[in-house]
Amino acid sequence: MSCCPAPNLTDDVKEYYGKTLQTTGDLQTSMCTTPAQKMAKHVREALKLVHDEVTSKYYGCGIVVPECLEGMKLLDLGSGSGRDCFALAKLVGPDGFVTGVDMTDEQLAVANKHVEYHQKVFGFSKPNVKFVKGYIEKLGDAGIADESVDIIISNCVINLVKDKEAVLKEAYRVLKYGGELYFSDVYSDCILSEEVRSHKVLWGECVSGALQWKQLYDIAKSVGFETPRTLTVHPVEVHKPELKKVTGDAKFASVLYRLFKLKPGFENEASQVIYNGSVTGFPDKLEFDRDYTFENGKAVTVDSVTSAILKQSRFADDFMMKKAPCCAKTTLVGEVDPFQILEESGEKVDMRSQACCTGTKCC
Ligand SMILES: C[S@@+](CC[C@H](N)C(=O)[O-])C[C@H]1O[C@@H](n2cnc3c(N)ncnc32)[C@H](O)[C@@H]1O
C-alpha cells in the first residue's frame, strides 16, 4: 500500500463499531446492502430466526452463507453482533460449530447475550456457537489452531484491517486443506489517495481501507490460496456530499469471493463433472462462481483447479467426476474486474434502486 491509515486505526474502528454506530441505520454509505432476492429459502428462514437486537447491529456488505454446511466447523472473522454466526449456526446444525472472532467489546456483548436464545429457538441441546475476543490478524492469540476450520466467512471486515496479508495468512493457516475463505468486502477501482485513506469516518465505513481489487489476487497468491472466485458484485455508494467530496471519482463495490486452500501437487487435469443435486437448498442447480453453474444431471467440463477444488472440498460427494475427453478445452478461471461486471450489467451505482436499503437506512 502506498499510503498510511490514521495512526490509532484499531482504536478508531473499535470506537466506531462500539460507540458511534448504534444501529445499521447510522451508517453513512450504502455498505449494508444485502439484496434479498439472491437468498435461498433456507437461508432466508435462518436469518428470520435471528434476534432483532442482533440484526439491528448488523453492519455487513453481503450474504456470506456458503452452500453445503451441515456438520461444518466455521469461523467468522469480525463477527460483530453475530447475525451471520447465528444464521449459520442454524444451518450447520447441532453437529456443526461456529466461532465468531471480534475485537469490539460492545459488539461481543450483544452476541454473547443471545447465544442461549438461539440455542433454544433452534431446538439444539447445547449451544453450537461461541464468540471470542481477538484480532483477526492474530488468530493464534484467540486460540484458533492450525488446520482446524472447514470454512471461514467474513462480512465487511478485512478492509478495516491495515495488514490484509496478515489476515489472509492467518486464514490460510487455520483452514483445513479443501477448506475455503468465503467472504464479502469492499474494493475500489483505483489505489486510494492519502486523503481518503486517512479519513476517520470513511475508514470506519469500510471505504478508506478498500483494496484496489487486483491487489486481492496478488495477496491471495502470495499466501497460497488458489485464484479468488467471484460470486457477486454490488456497487457501494458514498451518499453524503461531504464524504463524496473526499472520495472524488473513486468507485467502490462490495464483492463476494471464495478462496480455496488446496493440497499442493494436485493433478493438472480437466474433468467432466455431473452435479447430483444433493446440496441442501439447491436441488436443480448450484451456482459455484461466475464461471461455473452446475445443473443437476448435466455434464460440465471444468478446468484442473476447479476439478481439484471439487475433489478436495466438502463438495466431493455432490459430484460424479471422470477424466475429461482429451479434446475438451478449458481455460483456468482468472482475474475478474468487478467494476467491469458492474458496467456490463448496467447496474446503477445507487443501490437504493435495487437493494433493500433506503437512503442510509439499511435492512
Ligand atoms: C463492518 S462491521 C461487520 C460486523 C459483522 N461482520 C456484520 O456483518 O455485522 C466490522 C466488525 O469488524 C470488527 N473488526 C474490525 N477490525 C478487526 C480486527 N482487526 N480484529 C477483529 N475484529 C475486527 C469490528 O469490531 C466490527 O465488529
From TrEMBL:
Per the record, the domain of life is Eukaryota
Q: What is its EC number?
A: 2.1.1.137
**Known catalytic reactions:** arsenic triglutathione + 2 [thioredoxin]-dithiol + 2 S-adenosyl-L-methionine + H2O = dimethylarsinous acid + 2 [thioredoxin]-disulfide + 3 glutathione + 2 S-adenosyl-L-homocysteine + 2 H(+); arsenic triglutathione + 3 [thioredoxin]-dithiol + 3 S-adenosyl-L-methionine = trimethylarsine + 3 [thioredoxin]-disulfide + 3 glutathione + 3 S-adenosyl-L-homocysteine + 3 H(+); arsenic triglutathione + [thioredoxin]-dithiol + S-adenosyl-L-methionine + 2 H2O = methylarsonous acid + [thioredoxin]-disulfide + 3 glutathione + S-adenosyl-L-homocysteine + H(+)
The membrane-spanning stretches of this chain are none
- Keyword Transferase among record annotations: yes
Q: Extract the GO molecular function terms from the UniProt entry.
A: arsenite methyltransferase activity
Q: Decide whether keyword S-adenosyl-L-methionine is in the record.
A: yes
| Domain Methyltransferase, chain residue ranges per copy | 70-222
| One BP annotation, GO | toxin metabolic process
Q: So what family is this one in?
A: Belongs to the methyltransferase superfamily. Arsenite methyltransferase family.
Protein name in UniProt: Arsenite methyltransferase
Q: Which organism is it from?
A: Ciona savignyi (Pacific transparent sea squirt)
Q: What is the lineage of its organism?
A: Eukaryota, Metazoa, Chordata, Tunicata, Ascidiacea
